Amino acid sequence: MRKQKISDEEYRAAADESPLEVFRTLADLRAHGIDPLEEGIVPSNPVTKKVKSADRWAKQQVETAVASAGKWLDGVNNPSRSPIAAGIEAEGKYADKVQQAIKEGRRVKGLQKSSDAEIIAVANRLGSGVYSSGVEARSAKVARVVNELQPLAQSVSDAIQGMSDKTDADREKRLLSARKLMIEVGKKRRG
Prior knowledge:
Elements: H1 8-17, H2 19-31, H3 54-67, H4 69-77, H5 83-89, H6 91-104, H7 106-113, H8 116-126, H9 128-137, H10 139-161, H11 168-190
């Protein structure tokens, strides 16, 4: 599709022939601060539905999510099926989607769209209480993980303590062995 004024018929023909190309052209123009409607590329039809403004759309998204907090909690308490079982069942799909995201560099692209200032502003707005209450709410999980980890960490300590530490070479060997053993702890915990 051309990036110049076109007739309504030409626009419709282009949209019918290749909606993806029309989309890419319009998105590219908007990304460069060009309004396709003002430039005469998109036909000016007074009854054409317009997507709501970004400010209005974002405000409504936040308001709807905040108002739905009770529904969210009700859904968590009354799942239609086990989220754990569903997650296990979807393992193949998850692996496929992760590999696709890695190939496309989606994580890096997403991180590049944010900023340190944005992260800091959210943390400051929420306050430290969100962190402490989140950790406290997970105390049963923390206890479960520590109960799995403690005997393994003790075994690492016992193995390292049994090694000689008379020379620098001995101490270096202990350090490297501790690292290798902790990697084994991680493997053992993962199963």
